[in-house]
Amino acid sequence: MKIKDLPKIERPREKLIAKGAENLKDSELLAILLRTGKTGKNVIEIASQILSKYSKKRLLQMTYEDLSKISGIDSAKATTLLAAFELAKRALEVNDTNLPTIESTKDATAQLTDLQNPKKEHFITLYINARHKLVHKELISVGTLT
Q1: Cβ pair 142, 115 in contact under 8 A
Q2: What is the pLDDT of residues 29-53, one digit of tens each?
Q3: Which segments of 46-106 are extended strands (E)?
Q4: Other CB atoms closer than 10 Å to residue 78's CB: what's the count?
Q5: What gap in Å lies between CA 42 and CA 12, rounded to an integer?
Q6: Which of 20, 59, 67, 94 could form a disulfide with 78 if both were Cys (CB 3.0 to 4.6 A apart)?
Q7: Angstrom distance (rounded) from CA 42 to CA 4
Q8: Region 61-71: what's the mean pLDDT?
Q9: Beta carbons within 8 Å of 9's beta carbon, 6+ residues apart
């Protein structure tokens, strides 16, 4: 079955637009990067086949030569995947030297300067690592005026 034969809401690109990337299966995300299938297999089938053979972690470590050996991946697809994987790896790098240290309530309060005069109650969680470095700030909920 060709992608064109699927209902629009089930096509990976349209599904991403309608529901957001976080609601797609891994195979659908990979299919978007691959863009097209090959004779006899649509792009979702190729993506599913790749993910059944290689873990996502293994895919991130593959070279151009490794990717080029996979049926359905040509030079253009291999370079697109390598660029996407490298961008993901760079985004995931966390450098502790750039992270603020939270060792007191004063340090924690300094991370909440965007809430100096709130009209509503805000419940915010600060996540720190074992070295007291802030790794994530998350807004849990916002109360009402009363």
Answers
A1: no
A2: 999 999 999 999 999 999 999 999 9
A3: none
A4: 20
A5: 12
A6: 67
A7: 10
A8: 93
A9: 15, 18
Q: What pLDDT does residue 1 have?
A: 81
What would the two tokens of residue 33 be?
A: 């990067």
Alpha carbon separation from 55 to 14, 18, 33, 42 (Å, rounded): 26, 27, 16, 21
User: In whole angstroms, what is the distance from residue 6 CA to residue 10 CA?
Assistant: 6
E strands within the chain? 122-128, 134-142
34, 38, 55, 92 from 3: Cα distances, Å: 13, 12, 24, 32
Residue bearing tokens 């030297």:
97
Output the six-digit token pair for 141: 């909920």
pLDDT in tens, 69-105: 999 999 999 999 999 999 988 888 756 667 889 999 9
